[in-house]
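Give me the fold.
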Amino acid sequence: RPDLPVASHRFVSPSARCRRTAEELGLADAVAQPELRGCAAGRWRGRTLDEVAAEEPEALMAWLADPAAAPHGGESVRQLCARVAGWLDGTAAGLTGRVLVVAEPDAVRAAAVHALGVPDQVFRRLDVPPLAVVELTGRAGRWNLRLG
């Protein structure tokens, strides 16, 4: 269990795995935030990339290459990044004190893209391992990504 900073506000992605992780970290009181859910994968939900590649190789390649693509009928990476950016610049930026979030890796990647102000094509080049601690400092309009 990592040492977590004391936080004035605690939030969690609404997924079962994030809620369980939050509970294990002693954050059972974290408030679910739908904006921090993972990318909606439409009809590909619950399937592995290998399964999708075997059945829809062109669609998968389009989705991996183009952040605006959503051939699965769900959400594009661009839409995910916009959703998370909206939460950061709205809800999170309006709070005082430290904010602690347990979120899906997709949401963490989208937050990093927004904090760095990089194109959404960078999203797929960011790896977020389980239980990674990513720290954003600042506020709306000026986020910083702190590593280490």
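Strands lie at 9-12, 31-32, 99-102, 135-139, 142-146.
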